[in-house]
Design goal:
Ferritin, 0% strand, 85% helix, 5 helices, Ferritin-like, mainly alpha
Length: 155
């Protein structure tokens, strides 16, 4: 029974992270659509692609561990994207506001990955999650720098 519980927890943890990655992918795409700056747009689309690749890697782990992978983003992610759409419609497609929302999304991803790393997971799973977590931290810091530059440019 304990092995089944641990197996289910591994699959559940991986599926939660797949949702997080899909949320990130869709969130970055949504934010990129709201920007006029083509270089920043390409940066956000690259982050979306990284999220997609992470989801594919986690999906392969779910399958390798005998589970059924998650195929869609979360309700919370969908609601967050709709919030971005509403804010953009009301406030305009302000670069600072868009980057603030990107950072907020990366805050959620950081929390999800930290929670996953606190669990007792097989080494092959833990290694992938830790590597991806480092990428999330890097993305978060890069988004924060871009956001701070946007704030400084308009101040």
């Amino acid at each position: 029974m304990k092995g089944t519980v641990m197996h289910n927890d591994v699959i559940s943890t991986l599926n939660d992270l797949i949702e997080t990655c899909k949320d990130g992918e869709e969130g970055f795409k949504s934010c990129a659509e709201d920007l006029g700056d083509s270089q920043l747009k390409q940066t956000l689309l690259a982050y979306a692609s990284n999220c997609s690749e992470s989801a594919r890697e986690l999906t392969a782990l779910v399958i390798a561990h005998g589970g059924e992978p998650e195929t869609k983003s979360s309700l919370a992610g969908t609601l967050h994207r709709r919030w971005i759409d509403i804010k953009s419609a009301v406030m305009g497609k302000d670069e600072k506001a868009v980057l603030n929302e990107c950072e907020r999304g990366e805050d959620v991803a950081k929390k999800s990955y930290r929670r996953a790393l606190e669990k007792d997971l097989p080494l092959d799973v833990k290694v992938v999650i830790e590597r991806q977590y480092q990428g999330v931290l890097k993305n978060h810091d890069a988004i924060k720098i871009l956001r701070d530059r946007a704030h400084a440019a308009t101040s």
